[in-house]
Amino acid sequence: MRFTLSSSTLNNRLQILARTINNKSSITILDCFLFEVKNGMLSITASDSENIMQTTFQLEESNEDGSFAVPSRTILEAVKELPDQPLVFDVNITNLTVEITYQNGKYNFTAQNASEYPTIQSVPEDANIITIDSKLLYNSISRSLFATAQDELRPVMNGIYFDLTTDNLTVVASDGHKLVRSQITSVNNNIPASFILPKKPASLLKNILGHTEEEIVIKFHEKSAEIKYADGFLICRLIEGRYPNYNSVIPQNNPNELTIDRKSLIGALRRVLPFASESSQLIRFHIDSGNLELTSEDMDFATSAKENVICDYNGRTMDIGFKGGSLYEILTNLDSDDIIMHLADPSRAGVIEPATQPENENILMLIMPMLLND
Hints:
By secondary structure, this protein is α+β, with helices and mostly antiparallel strands. Helix content is 17%, strand content 43%. The model has no long low-confidence stretch (mean pLDDT 94).
């Protein structure tokens, strides 16, 4: 079997798929990429047994169909240093030898039998279906990943929750200290349904969705989901269990409103955070009309910092503490120029929203306060 393709195309596809493969797999064949040539198209598959990712593209030339598995490290090292040029694969399916010829040389190595590669288990026909714009899905996943937990006792908190209702699709992530809720108003369903996407497939999707502008189709059932995009798909196992009622933890009446330039606040946080206690990362906010004062202190090393930032504030004078690292993550995962913080008192969660919501989205982030020692 002989086929020809571009070295840069192959390298780009392999680099994305390689993130699926585990460094140490107990199943030897899962250290390989599965190559399948059919009707002039090449499909390449990578798997870690829980996640299966496949990409398909047109070959420049091919003379017959066939399939084989290639050790991932071998093929990745072979093509990543090559400048863009045609690669000619000559594969003997019988004795599993592979020869790759390029402009100034060639590689020879042994393939694995494709029949040893696990078969792809498709999602059942009665699955729920979501069709969503790739940019909306990319934005929702990107701004949610940082808020997922690493909790062995509550595995449902370790993923991103997709809650499909008759009104919208809500994407939620929380670790108990911070929460992200993105409502996508352009997506809804007659029958409510939900699933929890683990962190690894969410990260794999994030890397793909940033390069495509087409609609994404998500089919999901109780235990698995299939996400189809422009030139391939991802099938993954879902986290089973019941996600907590996220709406119940979002305060409905935080009357004190702070409007501030997001980048100015990020800059101030960057400057005062190094002077905070390394263990607590406590940043104290003193807020009154037109001014936000940020202070940090580390008693053990006798360090402290203070900075004032201009703001708009409608509310009573308040002192409230936040974990600086968590607040910094929230601010860097928002895009708007200005943000609004809705506050009630020093013991209740603060709600942060972009001053201007993106089209077809409603974004809210929540951060729990830290106790202040007056």
